[in-house]
């Protein structure tokens, strides 16, 4: 078999395994509605936690992780994105606003 076919079969097998693990978890509890109702509060906190875990290291550590150096333009853009997120309740507009702010600050500074 070619390496590409083996890789696609591996992706399929891992995806199927993940699906079956999650399906069995839901099926063991009998009803998905009861499980979702119990964990709804926790699930609402998951997207902001994931977004913070992805964004904060990139904002704080602008050089390799051994050096701590703050880029004030990135901090300003992050604050703009946070403010937009607070009022828009969207994912698209904070990303666009933060990136536009970062590009604008870097363009102005030369």
UniProtKB/TrEMBL annotation:
InterPro entries: Brnchd-chn_aa_trnsp_AzlD. It holds the Pfam family AzlD. It comes from the Bacteria. The chain crosses the membrane at residues 7-30, 42-61. Keywords: Membrane, Transmembrane, Transmembrane helix. This is AzlD domain-containing protein.
């Amino acid at each position: 078999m070619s390496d590409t076919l083996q890789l696609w079969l591996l992706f399929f097998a891992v995806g199927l395994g993940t699906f079956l693990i999650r399906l069995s978890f839901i099926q063991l509890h009998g009803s998905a509605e009861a499980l979702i109702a119990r964990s709804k509060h926790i699930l609402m906190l998951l997207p902001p936690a994931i977004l913070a875990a992805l964004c904060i290291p990139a904002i704080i550590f602008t050089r390799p992780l051994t050096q701590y150096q703050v880029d004030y333009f990135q901090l300003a853009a992050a604050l703009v994105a946070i403010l937009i997120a607070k009022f828009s309740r969207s994912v698209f507009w904070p990303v666009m606003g933060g990136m536009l702010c970062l590009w604008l600050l870097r363009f102005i500074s030369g």
